[in-house]
Design a protein that fits this description.
This protein is an alpha+beta fold. The chain is built from six helices and 21 strands.
């Protein structure tokens, strides 16, 4: 049944783990302070987007990704071998405080990687070119019919108090009479998932025999114009145990090493050096430092944690540079908005060395 999305539908439902509730409470307090700052007297809306990218040496099947609710639109992948996925991408539009009336936007998101394929999106959008989706006439500041759900992954993305409800028109079936009325679809974010075949952006290995984690070699996607990492950025090597607890260790990555075609580094880590709560705190702080609001940072950090638990493999976590994001994932937003703030995190699987 379709119902109107209310602000209460955007939060995380009871039953979530205690630590996530704690972070959510902290984010709500910070968001109350941020709302006044973000919803200024400027006539322009703010556009925020976060993304999570899964990368591996082997083929990643869609069943290994974050689970999505049934109402999400899907298409079969056109890529036979996929070792890189844009697992979860959410785009929010935060209206200005002095919004005089509904606002209208056109949004186009492209996956500018070879052999890319769009596999899931919501709300309704159309294919634009071979590897892009376009949301035409995105209405902001109006009520929209949205599907009621308690799906944990989807609800994590909805927990944004300042984001406006977005509505798009979905035309009726082909051959409809002129007086037939289509439907509308809406939510508080535009969602997209896609994949690509190609070399993983970072290659490493785990030395299991010594019971320490060693990242020994890096192999970078060929890109002479855009470094993967902007300046000095935090990174993590992490792994989820059978009970869902995550051990991790923070490291530092920098563009002087990662902008080269090939480079190498060794990082030795004692296992179980950090617990899940530590990784959440550190991710939350780092994401907010890259320009997202506190509630957005909490949501992205939680989805990273859930991805790690689902993959059950050692992984390297790091932030993509804005230059790389804009070059490989071009985003076009036509409407009265500021330049988008985009934060994308890579979760790169590290195979266990035999």
């Amino acid at each position: 049944m379709s119902t109107l999305i209310s602000p209460s539908d955007r939060g995380i439902k009871p039953g979530r783990i205690l630590s996530f509730l704690l972070f959510s409470c902290i984010a709500m307090a910070a968001t109350a302070r941020e709302t006044t700052a973000s919803m200024t007297a400027s006539p322009l809306a703010a556009v925020h987007q976060f993304g999570i990218i899964r990368s591996s040496f082997h083929t990643i099947h869609e069943s290994e990704l974050l689970e999505l609710p049934e109402f999400v639109h899907t298409a079969s992948s056109t890529t036979a071998t996929t070792n890189a996925w844009l697992d979860f991408s959410a785009l929010y539009i935060i209206p200005p405080q002095m919004m005089a009336g509904p606002m209208l936007f056109q949004v186009r998101q492209e996956l500018g990687i070879s052999h890319a394929s769009m596999t899931a999106w919501y709300p309704y959008s159309t294919l634009s070119g071979s590897s892009a989706r376009q949301w035409a006439d995105v209405h902001v500041g109006v009520q929209a019919d949205g599907l009621e759900t308690t799906h944990p992954v989807w609800m994590t993305g909805r927990a944004m108090e300042a984001a406006a409800t977005l509505k798009v028109y979905k035309p009726g079936p082909a051959g409809s009479q002129p007086d037939d009325v289509g439907t509308t679809e809406g939510d508080v974010y535009l969602f997209l998932r896609g994949n690509a075949a190609g070399r993983a952006p970072l290659v490493g290995e785990l030395d299991a025999e010594r019971a320490k984690w060693s990242v020994k070699s890096f192999s970078i996607w060929s890109d002479t114009h855009s470094p993967l990492v902007a300046g000095e950025q935090p990174g993590w090597i992490a792994r989820a145990g059978v009970n869902g607890e995550i051990s991790s260790r923070r490291i530092t990555l920098n563009s002087s090493g990662l902008s080269k075609q090939r480079t190498s580094a060794t990082v030795e880590l004692e296992p179980y050096s950090r617990e899940t709560a530590d990784l959440r705190w550190q991710l939350n702080e780092a994401i907010a430092g890259n320009g997202l609001r506190s509630d957005e940072a909490v949501a992205q950090a939680e989805l990273v944690i859930q991805s790690l638990i689902k993959m059950r493999s050692p992984a390297l976590i790091y932030f993509l540079s804005p230059q790389w994001i804009n070059a490989r994932f071009p985003l076009q937003v036509d409407g009265p908005s500021e330049d988008p703030v985009r934060v994308f995190i890579v979760i790169m699987e590290l195979p266990i060395a035999e």
